[in-house]
């Protein structure tokens, strides 16, 4: 099982589930992060595959992906409009920590 960044369970979960009232978004993020960690590359999956893997409806999966993309926690690309999406999980807290460390040097 891939290790989870403490930020995901300590901050992001509370933010997405409690503040944003989007528990499906947290589940989708968690699943995609685990898949990306396992495969060591971006994840190609249809909304139906995401929904079945997480245990939610397809429309909930679509809504969750839109929310995560809006929050810049996920980038979504498609080769064509009807192509299967490719997801890249983003961890902006790591980027800001790196920038802070670089400025401190």
Please characterize this protein's 3D structure:
The chain has 105 residues and is mostly helical. 62% of the residues lie in helices and 10% in strands. It has five helices and three strands. Strands 1-3-2 form a three-stranded antiparallel sheet. The longest helix is centred in the first third of the chain and has 17 residues, at 23-39. It is globular and about 45 Å long.
Detail the topology: elements first, then pairings.
Blueprint: H1 6-19, H2 23-39, E1 43-44, H3 47-54, H4 58-70, E2 74-77, E3 86-89, H5 92-104
How would you briefly describe this protein structure?
This protein is mainly α and 105 residues long.
How many beta-strand runs?
Answer: 3
Determine the fraction of residues in helical runs and give it as a percent range. Answer: 55-70%
Radius of gyration of CA atoms, rounded to a whole number = 14 Å
Q: What's the domain count?
A: 1
């Amino acid at each position: 099982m891939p290790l989870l960044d403490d930020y995901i369970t300590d901050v992001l979960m509370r933010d997405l589930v409690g503040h944003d009232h989007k528990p499906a978004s947290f589940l989708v993020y968690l699943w995609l992060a685990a898949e990306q960690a396992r495969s060591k590359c971006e994840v190609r999956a249809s909304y139906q595959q995401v929904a079945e893997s997480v245990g939610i409806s397809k429309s909930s999966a679509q809504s969750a992906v839109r929310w995560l993309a809006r929050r810049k926690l996920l980038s979504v690309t498609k080769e064509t409009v009807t192509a299967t999406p490719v997801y890249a999980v983003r961890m902006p807290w790591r980027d800001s920590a790196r920038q802070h460390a670089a400025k401190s040097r």
